[in-house]
Amino acid sequence: MHDISDNVYLINRVNPLASYTLDRFLHNELAVERAMTLNDVRLGVYNVLLSHGFRLQLNGCEFLASLAARYIVKSDYDEQKAISAIAISMGTNDDFIIGCINGSIIRNKQFISIASRTLGVTIPPDKTSITDVVTIVGAVFKVYFNYTVDTEHFEEDDRPAINFSRAILDHGKKR
Fold it and tell me: Is 119 within 8 Å of 140 (Cβ atoms)?
């Protein structure tokens, strides 16, 4: 499990964990760490994305959710390796995954303002790169869900899809 306690958005929160009282704890202002499955983590990430204005019907949102789940779960998280693993499991290339995620981020104009209020941290409006968004989603997940999992293995990595455009056509060229 990735230890994201050094996440910059968690460190700079207005309400540090030491300031919580029993009353605030009982009224769900602090998520207690709970052991869950990888599917629960994914569902929590989708919930974070939906509540922060992302459109779930876009491919970019699906890819962003998978990338954020990998950020939360994988202890050896590397963004480029994670994007490549998602591309292989979806049967496409890295550029398509990056383009879809960027398109999803661009379409969500209010993400930074909502995340700032959710985390109680002032986030600069230019923090819209994939790395920044994944870090912010990870921080929100840690505060409001705080699930832990026993395994870091993503099953879709075992079943890569066929990239038909690469198998049949290589950007308009026959193989």
Answer: yes
